[in-house]
# Entry
Amino acid sequence: MPPASSAGATPRHLVRLHDLEPSAIDDLIDHAQRLKRRAARADLVGRTIGMLFFRGSLRTRTSFEAAVHQLGGHTINLNASSDFWELEDREGTVMDGKAPEHIKDAARALSHYVNALAIRPAPAGQSWAVDRRDAQIASWARHSAVPVINMESALWHPLQALADMMTLRESLGELKGRRLALVWVHSPEPASLAVPHSLLVPALRAGMDVSVAHPTGFGLDDGVVGEAQEAAARAGTKLAVGGSLEDAVRGADVVYARSWQSLEDYGNTTLAASRRARLSSWRVDRKAMELGRDARFMHAMPVRRNVEVTDEVLDGAQSLVQAQAENRLHTQKALLAMLLKVSGAA
Amino acid sequence: MPPASSAGATPRHLVRLHDLEPSAIDDLIDHAQRLKRRAARADLVGRTIGMLFFRGSLRTRTSFEAAVHQLGGHTINLNASSDFWELEDREGTVMDGKAPEHIKDAARALSHYVNALAIRPAPAGQSWAVDRRDAQIASWARHSAVPVINMESALWHPLQALADMMTLRESLGELKGRRLALVWVHSPEPASLAVPHSLLVPALRAGMDVSVAHPTGFGLDDGVVGEAQEAAARAGTKLAVGGSLEDAVRGADVVYARSWQSLEDYGNTTLAASRRARLSSWRVDRKAMELGRDARFMHAMPVRRNVEVTDEVLDGAQSLVQAQAENRLHTQKALLAMLLKVSGAA
Amino acid sequence: MPPASSAGATPRHLVRLHDLEPSAIDDLIDHAQRLKRRAARADLVGRTIGMLFFRGSLRTRTSFEAAVHQLGGHTINLNASSDFWELEDREGTVMDGKAPEHIKDAARALSHYVNALAIRPAPAGQSWAVDRRDAQIASWARHSAVPVINMESALWHPLQALADMMTLRESLGELKGRRLALVWVHSPEPASLAVPHSLLVPALRAGMDVSVAHPTGFGLDDGVVGEAQEAAARAGTKLAVGGSLEDAVRGADVVYARSWQSLEDYGNTTLAASRRARLSSWRVDRKAMELGRDARFMHAMPVRRNVEVTDEVLDGAQSLVQAQAENRLHTQKALLAMLLKVSGAA
# Structure
């Protein structure tokens, strides 16, 4: 899993948010805030962004398309279900199997037509050891002549994390010394780990202490936690992993809830469902929130009301979920401006 | 089933056409006619309209997208089949079932991204008592911060009715004293009741007498008929319901054909098919048309040729079906201008 | 199978490339080359192109949408799988079967909304005698009031052939006296015959000699070969059909590979798969290419690497596959300008 770009340089693609330096993230957020106050029309006129969805999307698709349109550009939408086919990502293979085309050829061809490719790959879902390689998004980034934007892979969801960082900054101001509780919550149908994974390093680097709470068997990816621990050590911040929801929330400034899947049961839906069924008490309610320090509530949505979190918390004054959703739009505009080097770029 | 807006005021959303006063409908038609003569470019530049299809569409999707494009705006298209998921519409529920997201949260999030939401919900199709509540479109209208446009729910299809009113006006001029025959016709696969439902009140209010013909077991929704009878009483027009196709067409200025489903067999496809199979004589042909008073023929399409109506009638000089289709474009432009309060609005 | 337009006149639709005179093809290529050098913005502002896909597409959809966008226009995308339904193409039929709508009515209605219709029909796949009639695209062309563009039917893929002609011209300059080897290659899942069919007549008319190589049972459509032989006779060029890959490639300037389906096994997938299984030696590799005269390699993609052609050839300096893909964009712009009669048209 080599980084898509060496840290320090402006990456050509956006595969992981922490491929951007903290200062680059700050610049993006500043630009997004200017765009939020006054919808300045950066110049995507005559530019087309190709969007490839190998899995469904509501918020990401709509906020991304709207960002492009408001900047004057066009989008082209391709759905795996109806528009195209499985693509090969291994190099040098004899393609006598299911995939009739290699990502290499698709990426090169599409690079002639569009100015950037935004991609949501579909992990195979059989083996975490395989899926954690993020081979598809890596193959697109390797072969595309235009910027590739990761719209959520098995490991990373940089667009969500960028909007989350902006929302944290807007709500808390200076992040140094603030405490973020990243808490697992119950759901009959879990989400990917990409959202918690992506926020870890940027939050730690920005000066926050982070506590990750989850039941046994729901640990984050070891490699990602390792990277986060290194980032914490360098930034002088603290990362605590494991333990109860209540312990994590105690004294936190922000409670970020997400129901992610178990890597231990990965690919075994029966076992996974039975493990989750015993964990319905992992839910954020008012009582839990009161353990925090005037704590805000965050969630990337979609959210199962009164399962993951109560209506009261979700609709309460401390809820930042709508700000997170709105900031998807503004941060994606700033990001497009940066990657496509158009006017108004940070 | 409370109205989405009190009659009299300009509604914020468009859920039912008769939430608009007759004079407001006239204004829309006047504006649409100006747009038809000269494709003036009202200003949707920089605006994006989100379109959510929980069921398929050909005419509605294409005419609506074209209307937005010709006004300079963008559309974003979301298909339930490939892009997103079932949404919850009940308030306060514990969401541990199939729907991973509440319309409340989807509507709020999408309101950040787009300037209006055009929605075609999919009725569950099990119970008319449930589906007639139109709970989905009502939930979208309740929670959206931007205008919601109903692209055909279980009960209503206001966009079709608006184009139909324009077509009637263009073809007949003054509508007072004119007679509209709304006739059930045979089809192996029936359509919804939304089209006949939506035209009733606007036509009666505009001064037309309306005869609805249908076989036993194919009555319109009782609540809708009740509303229409009240509207007729207030407008001094006549509404006759039930009886044969021939009786309805006799002396009519317009014959509007539609094969709608039976509410008595609702949710029971086997029974419904067997009931319909006996009714293949309910078809509009030249002989039937000659019972009218130089009668025009209307149909909202899609239409099964030589089953619902003969080629001869459909392709004849008295057929208004292509005018109806074309007027979808112009009336939708006028409607967008009104709801989004852009230049050129009526 | 009458031509969609009489040869000589500029056709209103584009169903087959060879409905265009050689000089008209040359004019299109000249215009495309000017657009390639300098992306002059012809005027599609305010125009909308409807795209109907009854089968999936990656390159065609993306390159076509990008062409429209770069010219300032909009596209509307309709997928058979999610947006609409089977359409009837037979005239005068009693429509009590599966199709709820006639192409006649759909084409007329859509003609009100869009400025052109680009269509990829789905052949039924049961009988070649039926599918070779190309009844769907013919019905769209007959009933549409706006230009119809064939995005690949059972018989023809004119958009690919136009890009191929441009690529040949760019790579070889004068085509007179050049030799094109059109060779069948192995694949577990064959493609349609539309690509080889479409290139035959334009290449022969442009002065090329063409050798078509294929195993027994994989002959092209007899009617198409007959037309091509007539074209060769008139142009004074040679067409050789049948024989080995090696014989065809010997002395060729260009090797064009395609794995097309067998018309003898048409509709019988089991038989077809067993016939193909014995033919895995039909593959283009360096040894085969060296039989040519400094030969270029062409393929319309998608391509199964190391099955149809080796990585070495596909990624080598003689490979024109990316130029073919890129030229889809430029030629489609020139074509749209011609059919819609907008500025900059050839």
Summary: Residues 17-156+327-340 of chain A form a domain with the Rossmann fold fold (CATH 3.40.50.1370). The longest strand of chain A covers residues 48-53.
